[in-house]
Amino acid sequence: MSTPVSREAALEYHREGKPGKIEIVPTVPYSTQHDLALAYSPGVAYPCKEIEKNPDDVYEYTNKGNLVAVISNGTAVLGLGDIGPEAGKPVMEGKALLFKIFAGLDCFDIEVAEKDPEKFIQTVKAIAPTFGGINLEDIKAPECFEIERRLKEECDIPVMHDDQHGTAIISAAGLLNALEIQGKKIDEIRLVVNGAGAAAVSCTRLYVALGVKKENVVMCDSKGVLNASRGNLNEQKREFMTNRPINTLAEAMVDADVFLGLSVKDVVTPEMLCSMAPKPIVFALANPDPEIAYDLAVATRPDMIFATGRSDYPNQINNVLGFPYIFRGALDCGATGINEEMKLAAVHAIADLAKQPVPPVVSAAYSEGETLSFGPKYILPKPLDPRLLITVAPAVARGAMESGVARRPITDWEAYTDRLRRIMGYDNRIMRRISDEAKKHPKKVVFGEANTDNMLQAAVQGARQKLFIPILLGNDEMIAKRAERLHLDLTGIEIINLRHDREADRRQRYAERLAGRLGRRGMTLMDAQEKMFDRNYFGMMMVDAGDADAFLGGTYSAAQQTGRIAREVIGIRPGYRHFAALHIVQTKKGAFFLADTQVNRNPDAEALLDIARLARNSVEYFAHTPVMALVSYSNFGSSAGESEPDMVASVAGKMREMYPDLAIDGEMNLLFALDRRLRDETYPFTRLYGKDVNTLVFPNLSASSSAYRMILEMGVGEAIGPIQMGLNKPVHFTHVGAKVRDIVNLATIAALDAATASGHQPEK
Questions:
Q1: In terms of Cα–Cα distance, which of 465, 462, 460 is closest to 488?
Q2: CATH architecture label of 580-726
Q3: How far apart are CA 128 and CA 133, in angstroms?
Q4: Do domains 7-27+63-157 and 184-317 have the same CATH topology?
Q5: For all residues of the chain together, what is the average pLDDT?
């Protein structure tokens, strides 16, 4: 379900810190006088002269090729109507934010105080040289049709009115897949469209381009069916006028195969649904409430495929599946416009992606115990699917090239795809996806050390964001005082004073459970009873007994001690003898996965093999393809006979045998692991040839912890972790000094672990 949004929270979000949602940051060095002389006068004159000689060089020396303008006059803002350019600015800033976070495109929002179409067109034309592409937004119909047509004709850069074409592209992809599932042919279906605005007209045009016969289309507006008896129709409405002798939506719905609603809520009745053909398809896209309520619709026609614009129901038609990647592909190949071929390429790419196996982290928690797969409730990819960028953008670029509008054709598609994977800079999409999924089914996370400021703040923050349901261990009075000092509201948050008399029965129950399991390993009932006064033992037993879903500790407790207790209470997954920790380090070159960063100080060959296996599984879980380097101080036998390199090489060999298709090799120096070109030139025989490593397995804890801490302290990236791998249930422990954000992230991962049983993924 979508997270409720209050007025106060939304206003605070937009004004906190620096007001608004976007800012400009430098991309070049600027710390010295020489840097400034290059950036501005006198050095800037040289690129100016080059561009004067060859205008296309503007793409080489400026950000034009990565810059999109979101331009609006505020005449049709969301469902708010004509509220003006200033009032529409938060929406345009939000659109700019989406361009950046999903496709790495820089974006300026431009609000134009001009309703006259001709003056608006001239204004946009005048500023067009600044940009690589123009996204028209929230301009009312019918003016938007003429504005877009003229600008596409008169500008030599991609121009698209997303309100029209975004919905058209995404819904068309959903339509193709829905028709396939329902066993219907597109050239035979009868289509009813309710709503005759910009989006409805554009959708219908695209459906016709895909094969829908125009004579099988009936379009309605607020006054009824667009038919020959209506004499006051504008040009766009006349395009889809029918000669059928019908006047009402109810009449149009009889025997219809597909309904597309871009109108208002509650205009479709159960009776209308019942009158449709067998196995109907209904896209009820009115915002925020569909043309017929979801529960009522699916109860009325169980044989129906139903889609809405909402995230809390299956099959969301969301424009964010398209526009960031369409512009990304268009700009990357230097397209002079966005044509039908490019839009159709996007349609087919999005539709095909929905048929592919869904990465576990994307599928996670949409429904308990069920994996997303192509079918009636999954006809489109999820908006946070990381594969959209590398699927849709190349398809659009190919469409531009095949249709002859690409000025800078892409020749090396593998290199282009690699660049797309890195283009996001500090890529926090992993955490965004995890947070989004965790919210679907919030789990109970025990905070073992709620008596620390950061742990307590993290618990409250996560609760308010509905990421998880925190349970605080500690003295309730002391926690309450700490919360008061920190101005934290603990309303609705459970606090358990594990040492209080009221918990005596629970301590006894846990002690009996633990002693019963470990009696043959020297654990007496008296020993177990004593241990239940320890927050780590008690908290982990809550998870073991099913009273909670996950445990988070370790800010005061030593990690080694907490790890020993976890091994004792929770146990290690079958098939392994060791567990380990993973850090995800997000850098400008993309995400890197480092192991083991916390648990095994000096692993032997058996332990290192387990670490490598667990790391492989975890990287796949986070929707990445593992490309693994087993790191040492030598390269491929250069220090043969020395214990550490020999051990690492042996483990690398066993991994290659166990996973013949896995990109893994070692031993190798960190330099060669990270420098693909140098590695390929020097050691062309490796299984990593031509690939960028994203997973580093270190030979000992000293090396791994030094590596990731140095990266963080030098400001090169951000980290998520330590993420425990290999325990039977979600138990994670962090380090002294962990920041609130880090604790929230780790607790969210723990909650998602619980929701998806990620710690129990089978070997592949």
A1: 460
A2: 3-Layer(aba) Sandwich (3.40)
A3: 8
A4: yes
A5: 89
Catalytic residue among 13, 30, 40, 46: 40
Q: How many residues does the chain have?
A: 764
H or E element in which residue 334 lies: none
- Kindly list the distances between the CA atom of residue 442 and the CA atoms of 447, 466, 550, in Å, as whole numbers in the listed order: 15, 7, 11
- The span from the CA of 472 to the CA of 733, in Å, is 15
Q: Where are the domains of the chain?
A: 7-27+63-157, 184-317, 320-424, 438-569, 580-726
Other Cβ atoms closer than 10 A to 191 = 25
Q: In the CATH scheme, what is the code of domain 320-424?
A: 3.40.50.720
| CATH number for the domain whose boundaries are 7-27+63-157 | 3.40.50.10380
Give the angle subtended at the CA of 610 by the CAs of 553 and 426, to the nearest 5°: 60
Mean pLDDT of 710-729: 81
Q: Rounded to an integer, what distance in angstroms lies between the CA atom of residue 328 and that of residue 659?
A: 35
Lowest mean pLDDT among 162-171, 172-181, 435-444, 462-471: 435-444
Rounded (10°) angle between helices 476-485 and 453-464: 80
343 flagged as catalytic: no
Q: Name the pTM for this structure.
A: 0.65
CATH (one of 1.10.1060.10, 3.40.50.300, 1.20.950.20, 3.40.50.720) for 184-317: 3.40.50.720
Model confidence over 208-238: pLDDT tens digits? Answer: 999 999 999 999 999 999 998 887 888 889 8
**Residue 494: both structure tokens together:** 């459970």
Stretch 25-48: mean pLDDT: 87
Whether 95 is catalytic is: yes
Among the listed residues 13, 64, 89, 95, the single catalytic one is: 95
